[in-house]
Specification:
The chain has one domain: STAS domain (Transcription Regulator spoIIAA), CATH 3.30.750. 31% of the residues lie in helices and 25% in strands. Strand 6, helix 3 and strand 7 form a beta-alpha-beta unit. Helix 1 runs parallel beside helix 2. The relative contact order is 0.22. One of its GO terms (molecular function) is anti-sigma factor antagonist activity.
C-alpha cells in the first residue's frame, strides 16, 4: 500500500499512490492510515487523485479511518476522480465528508515518503 504523507502544520496530507482501493488492499490501507496519523492532532486530507476505482471494501476502509480519527481529527477528501466521486455520490457519502476539488498546495521539498 503506497501512501505518501506531507505534514503541512495543522494539516496532514496523505496521498494514495494506488489506482484502486478495493477488498485486496482495504485492510492494508486502514493499517497504514492508522500508522501515518498516529501522532497528528489536526485535520487529515486524503488525496485520492490517483484512485480510479473504489469498491465497498475500500469505501468501508475510508469510513473506518474517519471513525478512528474521530471528530477532533476530521478526515477530508480531495481530488476525487469521476468514478470515485460517483461512488461517494451514490452512497451519499459525499454528505458525510468534506470534499475538496484539489489537495492543498505543498511547499517544495515538504514531501516525506512514508
Amino acid at each position: 500500500m503506497d501512501l505518501q504523507q506531507v505534514n503541512l502544520g495543522d494539516v496532514l496530507l496523505v496521498r494514495v499512490n494506488e489506482d484502486r482501493i478495493d477488498a485486496a488492499i482495504a485492510i492494508q490501507f486502514k493499517e497504514r492510515m492508522r500508522m501515518l496519523t498516529a501522532g497528528h492532532r489536526g485535520r487529515v486530507i486524503l488525496d485520492l487523485g490517483r484512485v480510479t476505482f473504489i469498491d465497498s471494501s475500500g469505501l468501508g476502509a475510508i469510513v473506518a479511518v474517519m471513525k478512528f480519527l474521530g471528530p477532533e481529527r476530521p478526515l477530508e477528501l480531495a481530488a476525487l476522480t469521476p468514478n470515485v466521486a460517483r461512488v461517494f455520490r451514490l452512497t451519499r457519502m459525499d454528505g458525510v465528508f468534506v470534499i475538496h476539488d484539489r489537495p492543498p498546495e505543498t511547499p517544495r521539498g515538504a514531501e516525506d515518503a512514508a
